[in-house]
Amino acid sequence: MDLTIKRESFGQDDQSWLGSAHGTSAAQSITLDVSTFTAEEHYPEGWLKSGLPLANSGETYVLWTTEADLAGFLFTTVRVPVDTATPVGAAILEHGRVKTAKLPVSVDTAGQATAAGRIIFA
């Protein structure tokens, strides 16, 4: 994993999916397995959008699927490395309020239920 400090500008991050500021100051650092995302759907411009649903796969976090418990949402935009097998550092929003209509990928009611008590869906 590349942990060197970098500074990049990519415009404004769209966090309109956040329903409140609650939980934003407690976002946790994670290691993200980018290989679970698809370029065409999740990062056509080379960036994973904030608000993508995540699941915990043990040592890393992956794109949430209906077979997994929802761990939270990608808190900020993340640049995808050329080698998608390389894990990247990211931040996860584990609790707070989320506007479901603004998420870049929808989470069904069963997935929402796995985050009950931590995330309020509006």
Describe the structure.
The chain has about 120 residues and is mostly beta strands. About 5% of the residues lie in helices and about 25% in strands. It contains 2 helices and 9 strands. A 5-stranded antiparallel sheet has the order 1-7-5-3-4, with no helix packed on it. A two-stranded antiparallel ribbon has the order 2-6. It is globular and about 35 Å long. It starts with about 25 loop residues before the first strand and ends with a strand.
Which secondary structure elements does this structure contain, and how are they paired or packed?
Layout: E1 28-32, H1 39-42, E2 47-48, E3 53-56, E4 61-63, E5 72-74, E6 78-79, E7 88-93, E8 96-98, H2 109-113, E9 119-121
Parallel strand pairs: 8-9
Antiparallel strand pairs: 1-7, 2-6, 3-4, 3-5, 5-7
Low-confidence sequence ranges: none
Percent of sequence in beta strands: 25-35%
Helix content: under 10%
How does the major sheet shape up? 5 strands, antiparallel
Count every beta strand, where a strand is a DSSP E run of 2 or more residues. 9
Elements, N to C (H/E): EHEEEEEEEHE
Question: Which strand order do you get reading across the main beta sheet?
Answer: 1-7-5-3-4
Instruction: Tally the helices.
Output: 2
This entry's quaternary arrangement is: single chain
Shape: globular
Average pLDDT, all residues: 91
Radius of gyration from CA coordinates: 14 Å
How many angstroms separate the termini?
Answer: 36 Å
- Helix-strand makeup class: mainly beta
